[in-house]
Design brief:
Elements lengths: L3 H14 L4 H16 L10 H9 L10 E5 L3 E5 L5 H19 L1 E9 L5 H5 L7 E7 L20 E5 L7 E5 L6 H10 L8 E2 L5 E2 L10 E2 L10 H17 L27 E9 L6 H16 L15 H13 L5 H14 L6
Parallel strand pairs: 2-3
Antiparallel strand pairs: 1-2, 3-10, 4-5, 4-10, 5-6, 7-8, 7-9
Helix pairs in contact: 1-2
């Protein structure tokens, strides 16, 4: 078990070492460790090796000039200047919130960015302002549309955070596939098989190999196959791709730059980098905040009281398992897999940072 503070100190020192400012290093670490605290270790410190490898290949700008390049009273487009996605995403969500304060809603798309961690971190930024937060991002193509063997979409997550009154907020944060690439990597490190319906081989046949992506395989859309609704997962992933890339001028679908250093960049890409999309909606732009929160409490209480199926203890509200995991990890510490620790040590040795875990 490792404390959040100890991990935070090491991660900040790594990103400082490769040229990030103290402020940017703290943002990156905060978001990676938010994933660890919430039990989403596929988007936690496991990603450090990938990020540093991208920097070593010259594909990350550690001193980006993140800026607005197009704007209206309620919208903006932000250029991430090839920096770490967390930097552009944090600024973009802050802009969306400020626009919502003035205009009721704010909508910001981002281009020229990279992997931004967990989407839920950004949607939850709106909660303290009595706003609904929305965050989504496209990702490098690892997903085959229904009936295809080509990898044309990313796992393309969506997050929506909704404030409540006495109850804890509703926080949905999910990929538009049955599993994210990072979770396949965790399965591989644990020596586990992927469940049926999660991935397919390069010929389109179902597979349980969590490392199948390295052999030309693909992740399937949410639903797994047509008979179980994969066409709906395909639609969700396509919506995220269009909102994140087409609105911002980022690369879409198969043109999204890979977020791992061992895959080469394609030439003559139609857009700029990877794209994100954020929204903030002020509750009192629709009704009084008090009325909404009271009704949201009723909504949450109604669903929490739903009768569970046999063998299940309870019905969860979206965000509830992650919140409970966060409380546990803050008290007991965070478990880091041995192979992830080995990767972190290798990174520290390579760049000359003391490994303090």
């Amino acid at each position: 078990m490792y404390s959040n503070q100890l991990l935070n100190k090491l991660v900040i020192s790594i990103f400082n070492k490769i040229g990030c400012s103290n402020e940017d290093s703290e943002i990156i670490s905060k978001i990676l460790l938010a994933a660890e605290l919430r039990g989403i270790n596929s988007h936690g410190v496991l990603r450090v090796k990938d990020y540093v490898s991208l920097w070593e290949k010259g594909r990350i700008n550690t001193n980006p000039n993140v800026r607005i390049v197009h704007e209206s009273p309620s919208t903006a487009v932000v250029d991430g200047d090839k920096g770490f996605g967390m930097i552009a995403a944090t600024k973009a969500m802050q802009i969306a919130i400020e626009k919502a304060k003035k205009n009721g809603t704010g909508w910001v798309s981002v281009n020229n960015s990279n992997h931004f961690g967990i989407a839920g971190f950004y949607s939850m930024m709106a909660l303290e302002h009595d706003m609904i937060g929305i965050a989504m991002t496209n990702a490098n193509p690892l997903v085959s549309p229904t009936f295809s063997v080509e990898r044309l979409l990313g796992t393309n997550p969506i997050s929506v955070a909704v404030p409540a009154g006495k109850e804890n907020p509703f926080v949905a944060d999910f990929s538009t596939t049955p599993i994210a690439r990072g979770k396949l990597a965790v399965m591989d490190k644990k020596g586990e098989e992927a469940p049926q319906g999660y991935v397919q081989d390069k010929e389109g046949k179902s597979s349980t190999d969590p490392n199948i992506l390295s052999d030309g395989g693909a992740i399937l859309p949410l639903g797994g196959d047509r008979i179980h609704g994969s066409h709906k997962g395909y639609c969700l992933g396509a919506i995220v791709d269009i909102f994140s890339a087409l609105l911002s001028g980022a690369n879409f679908g198969p043109f999204v730059p890979p977020q791992v250093s061992f895959l080469p960049l394609k030439e003559n890409l139609p857009g700029k980098g990877l794209g994100h999309f954020f929204g903030a909606m002020r509750i009192d732009a629709f009704q009084t905040t008090e009325d909404f929160k009271r009704n949201m409490d009723l909504w949450i209480d109604t669903f929490k009281k739903a009768k569970p199926v046999a063998g299940q203890e309870r019905v969860y509200i979206p965000g509830e398992p992650e919140r409970e995991m966060e409380e546990k990890h803050k008290k007991e510490g965070i478990v880091i897999l041995d192979k992830v620790l080995d990767d972190l040590k290798d990174v520290c040795d390579d760049i000359g940072v003391e490994f303090t875990l």
